[in-house]
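New to this. Explain these tokens.
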Amino acid sequence: MALIRMGTIEDAKFKILAFLIEVKEANAKQLEKKAGCANKTFLKARQQLEQQGLVQKRYQNRKEGGLEAIYSIPQEKLQTVKLMLEREALKKNCSRQIDNLGPDDIEFYKQKLNELEKELKWYKQLPRLIDLTLIECLPAKAILEKLEQKGLGTKDLDSNMLINIYDIPDFRPEDVEVFLIPASELNTTETITDPSRISHSILEKYVPIEKHDPIINMIPWILLTPKPVKNYYIVGAYKIFSENLFDSNLFHRSWHVDWKGYYELPEKDWNVIKPKIREIVIKNAGRKDLDDKISTYIINYLVNTKGDAFQRLKKIQLKYGASEKLAEEIARKSVEEAKKAAENEQKTP
């Protein structure tokens, strides 16, 4: 004789919540029917949901007399409940998949799960990372303590000798990175492109490349000393970039593409569009169409700023093996799409 499995308390709770999401409100009789479990199990499930604040009740008059309890999910708990239900659905789906896996499949899924966990970690910190790329200074206290760890104490320098630092709370020495660049290597009049950022080609000798490759240009390194201190200039950055950008390998392919060389961009144009490309990479890390987004942005830039954009794009296609006819076709389509995008952008209020 086959055993009939009765639902557990947790099963009943999820069924109750899913039903209330669907119908908004229900009485106890309706909830118990939907829970599909023993009355004792249902009562415990309903009680726990009330205690957890995930379900609330109000009383209304019955047509036949007396009062009945009407249950619903509090407005402030709707998102929490929806997330719980999505997690549970994902668990059940994954469980079914796992039951059918062979040894090779298990190894494949373990690898994919590891990649997804890294990607999820990245996206959770994305708002903070974007904010930090826009900050033109570093936390003063954390920087001074970090420099002291490197042997540069208050007898060698004080906060008055440093630039681009500010009293930003909640940062520790381990939240920042600091490197010393020999004064002979850093010509500040040539390598600083704005008030605080450093030419990254200078840093390649002194920043551990095995840690920061392949996108060293994405780290906003900031000059901290306008004059040498003990024959060194000091540069710094927020450590969160190296912890998240480089370990996850989310950008490896896109930042090995020589975009400047591929589109034959002059240095002046490259300096104009590079910050926007960095923003695109940060916001779209790990996406399969990341390269397409970068390419589209560069093409739109060329079409909107260069009168000979068609010839430039055609030349690029010819250089990489396209026939005359195909090169013209690709270049013409790219120009048309860029112009249409610009028109749509102007129409958008």
The first helix runs from residue 9 to 23. DSSP finds 16 helices and eight strands in the chain.
